[in-house]
Write a structure and sequence with these properties.
The protein is α+β, with helices and mostly antiparallel strands. It has helices at 10-14, 55-65, 72-80, 85-93, 104-114, 119-133, 153-157, 161-166, 173-184, 190-195, 198-206, 213-223, 234-242, 257-288; strands at residues 2-4, 22-26, 29-34, 37-45, 48-51, 136-138, 146-148. It is 52% helix and 11% strand. Helix 11 crosses helix 12. It binds a DNA duplex (13 and 12 nucleotides) through helix 6 and helix 12.
Length: 289
DNA sequence: TACCAGGGGTAAG
DNA sequence: CTTACCCATGGT
């Protein structure tokens, strides 16, 4: 079915570092696994996305998952009309990004894995975890293809350190097992944590061995949809240092700080990529000479 | 407080 | 090809 929606760009969302199981199949064509379901999406126009499900499934799951009821246009317009040149550029560049409402346990484990890793490495680990411990899903498109759901807490709690090391999670093996056990055994109640305030959820998450400030904030933002949270990773830290000389006024964007952080992150990373491509091309030219 | 292990991916040499 | 660098957390 076709979704006509402003500020909804599937390429930007897939490349914004918030999700690890959205993969490019072709130009403007992506796959996604969530809620134990396989989905394909095609960007048909600036405000037009084709989505491979019926209206019932869309209303039940994906409308909420893609946060399509929230008005991003108002925030974008505010930033575009604002006096901050970096944020004006960042908002214009990433205006199709939305903060997905991803599943809590998947976010918890994914962001534990994410520490000290780049995005391709995180994706490889997450995919390996799903393949080894997750429930198989039969594709609705091609009945010979099997996809794997993200493991449940009890599925993952059965993993051994040795098995996890083979999946290249490194020293995070123990963090993963203990986190999965905490959820499976109820020390960390998934139903409760959804009803907590940001601060309560943050404190509860930090009780888990291997979850520090940055990872806890990412889980709050992406797994519990506390969009006022502003996780600071090295990219954001660099922006706060170099662009703002550590005088960025977060209070101006209170309530939407997590979205603003996404625009900053996505803009900065792509600036860097463009610079790398440029230097790579220049390098090739000089080699030819 | 400051520093470092840790390991896979990527950029640079 | 090899080497250097990156990075969030917990431990010293």
């Amino acid at each position: 079915m076709l979704i006509h929606k402003k500020n909804f760009n599937i390429e930007q969302i897939a490349d914004s570092g918030q999700c690890f199981r959205m993969n490019q199949l072709a130009e403007k064509h992506y796959s996604l696994i969530a809620f134990g379901r396989y989905l394909e999406l095609i960007q048909r126009g600036e405000d037009l996305v084709e989505i491979s499900c019926d209206e019932e499934e869309f209303a039940e799951l994906w409308q909420d998952y893609f946060d399509l009821s929230y008005d991003y246009t108002q925030l974008i317009d505010t930033l575009l009309a604002g006096e901050d040149p970096f944020l004006r550029s960042a908002a214009a560049f990433g205006k199709g990004i939305r903060i997905l409402k991803q599943e809590f346990f998947e976010m918890m484990i994914s962001f534990i894995i994410s520490q000290n890793k780049n995005i391709p490495a995180i994706k490889n680990c997450v995919e390996a975890l799903c393949h080894k411990y997750g429930t198989p899903i039969r594709s609705a498109f091609d009945h010979n293809t099997i996809y794997y759901a993200f493991p449940t807490p009890s599925q993952l709690a059965q993993a051994s350190k040795e098995e996890l090391r083979e999946l290249k999670v490194g020293y995070r093996d123990e963090y993963i097992i203990r986190a999965a056990q905490a959820v499976a055994e109820g020390q960390l109640d998934v139903n409760c944590i959804h009803s907590y305030s940001y601060k309560e959820a943050f404190d509860a998450l930090k009780q888990i061995h291997g979850i520090g400030d940055k990872v806890a904030n990412c889980i709050c933002l992406y797994g519990l949809h506390h969009i006022q949270v502003f996780p600071i990773d090295v990219w954001i830290k660099r922006i706060l240092d170099e662009v703002y000389q550590n005088e960025f006024n977060l209070k101006l964007y209170e309530g939407n700080a997590g979205i603003v952080q996404q625009y900053m992150f996505y803009f900065m990373r792509n600036q860097k990529e463009n610079q790398n491509e440029k230097t790579a091309k220049e390098g090739m030219k000089s080699k030819k000479k």
